[in-house]
Design goal:
The protein is an all-alpha fold. The chain has one domain (1-225): MetI-like (MetI-like fold, Orthogonal Bundle). 80% of the residues lie in helices and 0% in strands. The chain contains 10 helices and no strands. It has helices at 2-16, 27-59, 63-75, 78-89, 93-117, 121-129, 134-164, 177-186, 189-217, 220-226. The longest helix is centred in the N-terminal third of the chain and has 33 residues, at 27-59. Keywords: Membrane, Transmembrane, Transmembrane helix, Transport.
Length: 229
């Protein structure tokens, strides 16, 4: 208990120190860097995962390939991928983005695919029966009904990316992981614990935001209307 209280005091002292809120080494600047890596990675992953997930879920073609690629991407160690791309391409944000995109694509891809594929076939037939084209069925029927799973995939990917974007610090880049890496190299555990706490809080904020977004978008009325093309 005393150790826990001591650690909490360390975190409190670190967070309330004025020097942590100013300059390039401060929390706001590192947080902005972290959000930039995370946001870009999630954007690219969403473009890839949503596009292929919707396409394969709608057409039913390539389901095995989607599952295989998603499982392969999950098996790739993020840190190892960062080191490999840094070795091949040099020090830049590219290795970090590639690794984080590879991490984020599988949950988005699989959840989008499963959500669209799981739409009731009778609902699809009814939509086609009233003259909807394949594109209209996808946009007006399948996507709204698959939205809960799609948002779940995006939420899982966002939390994973935010928590893992600390790897950007290992090849010498910024982000909140800078606190952890620098703290370990200096044996400054106050810095390590403080940086880790900020990462955890950020992940919790992302979780809350996506939960609120789901409740706002995926209302009972929307699900009912989606079932009635």
């Amino acid at each position: 208990m005393n150790d826990l209280l001591s650690q909490l005091r360390l975190v409190g002292d670190w967070l309330t120190s004025s020097k942590q809120w100013h300059g390039d080494e401060g929390i706001p600047h590192r947080l902005l860097e972290h959000l930039t890596y995370s946001g870009l990675s999630l954007l690219f992953a969403a473009l890839i995962g949503l596009t292929f997930g919707l396409l394969v879920g709608h057409t039913g073609r390539g389901a095995f390939a989607v599952a295989s690629v998603a499982n392969l991407a999950r098996a790739i160690p993020t840190f190892g991928l960062v080191v490999l791309v840094v070795t091949l391409a040099g020090l830049s944000t590219t290795p970090v983005l590639i690794a984080l995109v590879a991490l984020a694509v599988p949950p988005i891809l699989i959840n989008t695919f499963e959500g669209v594929r799981g739409v009731d076939p009778d609902t699809r037939d009814a939509a086609r029966g009233v003259g909807m084209t394949g594109w209209e069925v996808l946009v007006r029927v399948e996507v709204p009904m698959a939205l809960p799973l799609i948002l779940l995939g995006l939420r899982v990917a966002a939390i994973q990316v935010v928590a893992t974007a600390t790897v950007a610090a290992y090849p010498g880049l910024g982000g909140l992981g800078r606190f952890i890496v620098d703290g370990l190299s200096r044996n400054d555990y106050e810095l390590v614990i403080g940086g880790s706490t900020v990462v955890v809080v950020l992940a919790l904020v992302v979780q809350i935001l996506f939960t609120a977004l789901r409740r706002f978008i995926v209302s009972p009325g929307l699900r009912v209307s989606a079932a009635k093309p």
